[in-house]
Amino acid sequence: MPNTAIITGASQGLGLTLAFALARDGWNLVLDARGADALERAAQELSDVGPGRVTAVAGDVANDWHRAALIGAAGPRIDLLVNNASGGIGLGPRALA
Q: Which terminus of the chain has fewer CB atoms gathered within 10 Å of its CB, N or C?
């Protein structure tokens, strides 16, 4: 059974770079980003990279229902969570101070 990763902020930058690395290694990927168009383009590119399944779930990780949708899309097992979304749940220097 292939490993499964959820990657937030996966439509660009570090999230997308990590998604490509995992796709080449055959991982199943559940990708998250707020911008649906950019996320769909990234998922399309990634689907050609490796044998794993690539699922795009656009939305905001600040929403409970969206986080539940990501978990549901991953299936029965999540091997890796990359929490790369920027500002998703309002944590930052002021919230931590």
A: C
User: Residue 86 and residue 32: Cα distance in Å, rounded?
Assistant: 12
Residue 30 structure tokens:
């559940």
| Burial letters 62-97, b for 16+ CB under 10 A, else e | eeeebbebbeebbeeeeeeebebbeebeeeeeeeee
Residues 31, 34, 37, 42: is their CA dihedral positive or negative?
negative
Alpha-carbon gap, residue 65 to 1, rounded angstroms: 27
Cβ neighbours of residue 1 closer than 8 Å, sequence gap 6 or more: 77
Over residues 65-73, the mean pLDDT reads 96
Neighbours of 59 (CB within 10 A): 17
Tell me what pLDDT residue 1 has.
Answer: 82
Q: pLDDT tens digit string along 24-37?
A: 999 999 999 999 99
Residue 47 CB contacts under 8 Å (≥ 6 apart), including other chains: 54
